[in-house]
Amino acid sequence: MSSQQSNRVATIVINIMVAFVVLILIFLLGDILITGLPHVTLHLLTSPSQSFAAGGGIRDQLFNSFYLLVLTLLISFPLSLGAAIYLAEYAANNWLTSLIRTSIEVLSSLPSVVVGLFGYLLFVIQFKFGFSILSGAIALTFFNLPLLIRSIEGSLHAVPRSQHEAGISLGLSNWKTIKGIILPAALPGILTGIILSAGRVFGEAAALIYTAGESAPIVSYTNWNPLDSNSFLNPMRPAETLAVHIWKLNTEGVTPDAVSISAGASAVLVIVLLIFNLSARAIGNHLYQKGSGHK
Fold it and tell me: Which spans are transmembrane here (predicted)?
């Protein structure tokens, strides 16, 4: 077989593999959306859930998911940004840097249930945070850190070295060069990484069962005082998220319409995750084109 024939065969095999993966994704998403979209109504999105009666919604679970996502990003992004800047701009090639990178890789491979149990023992029990949004956000930070650090570090490495050298040649310090030149140039990649990590956090369930809890207490959406236990902004209250609610409906749901609510909630979850991923791609492309001067 000639080299051209081998190349043609390899190309066909690779295309078949890619098409197979795409078909699996289309089948999974199509099945969830076709089954769930008929149940996605305004009533489902704006009504509280019910434990025993039919007609419940996912209002509180949907809000809890976004609230926990925001709190997780507020905790994990500064840590990730600092670690990525250190690894990309300051770290020497020695055993300490190797240890840090190995720790990041190990952290990214931990099963979510293990992180959940660790969060339960440390934050819920030892620190006495209880089942709360704060406990869940700290636990999810362990998932978010590796993804964000690698994403931000890759964005910093993608900035041409000549820009760093130009800043130094102008008499700027290393930190001022990073802050004024490198970070703005790496902003498109950083934003893309943040949005992609947000999708990971939004769809997490196993770790939150042991940290944020499986209950969604009735709270006041007019009470903006985060120190009030009745406030929807209170980070110390239990918070069942959308992904946990779907799991709970399919394992121990006793409402007559548990199947339809689960299908509708699953469709909403998939739509939000698709929005996160498509937004990351669109925003990244727009900022890259804007930065390169293309319209």
Answer: 12-34, 66-87, 99-123, 129-149, 181-202, 258-280
CATH code given to domain 40-292: 1.10.3720.10
Give the number of other CB atoms < 10 A from CB of residue 100: 15
Q: Where are the domains of the chain?
A: 40-292
Q: Is the dihedral of CA 281, 283, 288, 293 positive or negative?
A: positive
Using alpha carbons, select from 274, 268, 205 the residue that is nearest to residue 40.
268
**3-state secondary structure at position 109:** coil
Size (the chain), residues: 295
Question: Distance (Å, rounded) from C-alpha 243 to C-alpha 240?
Answer: 8
Cα distances (angstroms) measured from residue 251 to each of 40, 258, 262? 21, 10, 11
Question: Half-sphere exposure (CA, 13 Å, Cβ side) for 245?
Answer: 35
CA pair distance 177, 171, nearest whole angstrom? 9
Rounded CA-CA distance 230/228 in Å is: 5
Question: Which residues fall within 8 angstroms of residue 177, CB to CB, at 6 or more apart?
Answer: 164, 167, 168
Cα(175)–Cα(179) distance, integer angstroms: 6
Give the DSSP letter of residue 244: H
Rounded to whole angstroms, the Cα distance separating 52 from 31 reads 27
Please state the pTM of the whole predicted model.
Answer: 0.89
Here the tokens at position 251 are: 């394992």
Cβ-contact 197, 144 below 8 angstroms: yes
| pLDDT tens string 179-233 | 888 998 888 889 888 988 888 889 888 899 999 988 888 888 888 888 888 888 9
Read off φ and ψ for residue 276, nearest 5 degrees: -60, -50
